[in-house]
Amino acid sequence: MFHVEKMEVDDFPFAVQLANTMNWNMTLEDFEFMVKIEPQGCFVLFQDQEHLGIANSVSFGKTGWFGNLIVKETVRREGAGNLLTKHAIAYLRNKGVESIGLYAYPHLVTFYESFGFEADIDFLVLKGKAAFPPTQEMLRAANSQDVPEIIDFDCQCFGANRKKLLEPILLNKNNLCYIANENSEITGYVAAKVYDKMVEVGPLMCHANHAKEAVLLLETILSKLNGVEVFMYIPKKETDLLNVLHKAGLKEDFRVVRMFLGPAIAKNCICAAESLERG
Ligand SMILES: CC(C)(COP(=O)(O)OP(=O)(O)OC[C@H]1O[C@@H](n2cnc3c(N)ncnc32)[C@H](O)[C@@H]1OP(=O)(O)O)[C@@H](O)C(=O)NCCC(=O)NCCS
To answer: Measured in angstroms, how far is the CA atom of residue 111 from the centroid of ligand 1?
Structure first.
């Protein structure tokens, strides 16, 4: 019989090894971070003492995100994925979450529909070694004093307060963040998480009527990442941003479908994901 338990530090090596059978580039630090921001919301599936699967969830008030769902190949199609997904949904509901988002591989859209998730928009995963010329320095790097305002701005766009996720990212001196202003109000920001061997660009958030700033933000951050392997998760409809990424040498890797169980969020803004597992 399968059963689900809370993920503990001892489970991290299994989680990394399993996740990387899918080339998800996960590290022990990724799971440390997930458990730090949602200690009760990261799960391991067992049969007796044997580790067989994982899933992560995170709550931001009334919004939650689900990701990193994976089950060992040898026990697929035996109900394990179903159990992990139901467990995470119940956990988030219990936390008061009304809307749960996720990014699904296209062939798993029907799997998630069986829990009530509905397809929203397509996202593209782009990756590649960035090569982008320097831009005119019109946007400024954010500093620690900007962090509260960035979090408030992100909340307006995303529709939920992501302080527990964004604050550690924005205060980490290895990471990058640039902001666009109009009349001293933030109109957009972009952040990038700098790891040993690669950089994840995101979130990028702008009001829908500030598309030019979104392009400038992306150009600015890419121009600081020359020669680095960059990943970004971006709505397929954001063609101006895609053009910038193509110009920088990034290529489409695969497509995912953003899905929601409950009302869709982040509808009226330009929104590139922070990560596939956290929204
Ligand atoms: C997705 C995944 C977690 C499903 O786990 P699982 O334990 O095999 O799923 P279940 O046995 O609970 O499946 C329940 C139902 O979902 C559907 N389903 C499961 N896997 C599916 C697949 N690969 N394609 C289409 N439908 C699928 C089926 O309807 C299945 O019922 P059935 O076996 O009676 O037909 C597993 O395939 C996996 O680990 N895949 C690799 C990682 C991955 O893609 N994660 C998802 C990222 S979005």
So the answer is: 6
Give per-residue pLDDT as tens, 135-179: 877 799 999 999 999 999 999 999 999 999 999 999 999 999 999
> In terms of residues, how long is the chain?
279
User: How far apart are alpha carbons 67 and 80 in whole angstroms?
Assistant: 15
Residues in contact with ligand 1 by the CB-under-6-Å rule are 22, 69-71, 76-82, 104-105, 107-108, 110-111
Q: How far is the CA of 167 from the centre of ligand 1 (A)?
A: 34
Helical H segments across 22-79, by residue range: 28-37
Distance (Å, whole) CA 79 – CA 33: 28
Instruction: For each of the domains in the chain, give its residue range(s) and CATH number, in order of start.
Output: 2-97 (3.40.630.30), 126-272 (3.40.630.30)
What pLDDT, on a 0 to 100 scale, did the predictor assign at position 259? 98
Ligand 1, closest atom to CA 80? 7
- pLDDT beyond 90 at 268: no
Ligand 1 center from residue 54 Cα (angstroms): 13
Asked if 223 and 138 touch (Cβ cutoff 8 Å), the reply is no
Q: Is the Cβ–Cβ distance between 134 and 225 less than 8 Å?
A: no
To the question of pTM greater than 0.90 for the whole model, the response is yes
